[in-house]
Each structure stands twice: as C-alpha cells, then as structure tokens.
Amino acid sequence: MTSVIAFMGAMALFWMYLWLISAMSAAYLSERKGYTDRAGLATGLVLSIVGVVVWLIIPAKPDSKWKTVGAFGGTERKQPDAN
C-alpha cells in the first residue's frame, strides 16, 4: 500500500514538471515568434504539451527574433539584399 502511494506521488511530481516545462517552452516560443510571452505562458499552462505544438504551428511575425536570429539564438542572420 505504501509503495502504491509513493508511486502515485512520484508520478504526480513527474507530470507537474512536464506541465511546467511545457508552459516555459510555449512562453519561449511565443516570445521568439514576436508575440508576448504571456500569451505563450497562458497557452502552455492551459493546454500543456498541446500549447507547445500550437506555438510551433503559429507563424512568426516578420520582424521577430524567430525570423532574424533563429529558433534558438546565435548570431543574427543577414538579410539578403534586394538588388
């Protein structure tokens, strides 16, 4: 009986960490795509893993960090000349 309760507690902790990591990921993606991080955080908290998928599907704004720097940072990309 005690091991069942301990297993349930461990699984609850695992699911809580998964929920929080998905909320952080959705907030990060929404901020990189040019939207507010609050929108991503709310989406991630309400929809969990689905919120991350939603922000991967939503298109980035033209002047966002997603378009200029990339998904994970690094050096800024040079825009091709329109000559």
Explain what the structure shows:
The protein is mainly α and 83 residues long. It has one domain (2-68). It is built from 4 helices and no strands. Helix 1 (2-32) runs antiparallel to helix 2, helix 1 runs parallel beside helix 3 and helix 2 (37-47) packs across helix 3. The longest helix has 31 residues, at 2-32. The model has no long low-confidence stretch (mean pLDDT 89).
Provide a brief overview of the structure.
The chain has 4 helices and no strands. It is mainly alpha-helical and 83 residues long. The chain is elongated, with a radius of gyration of 18 Å.
What would the principal axes of the Cα set say about the shape?
elongated
Q: Summarize the main sheet.
A: none
Structural class: mainly alpha
Report, as a whole number of angstroms, the end-to-end distance.
74 Å
By DSSP, the count of extended strands is 0
User: What is the element string, with H for helices and E for strands?
Assistant: HHHH
How many domains, in number, for the residues?
Answer: 1
Percent of residues in helices comes to 55-70%
User: What is the mean predicted local confidence, pLDDT?
Assistant: 89
Question: How many DSSP H or I helices?
Answer: 4
Radius of gyration: 18 Å
Q: Segments where pLDDT lies below 50 for 5+ residues?
A: none
| Percent of residues in beta strands | under 5%
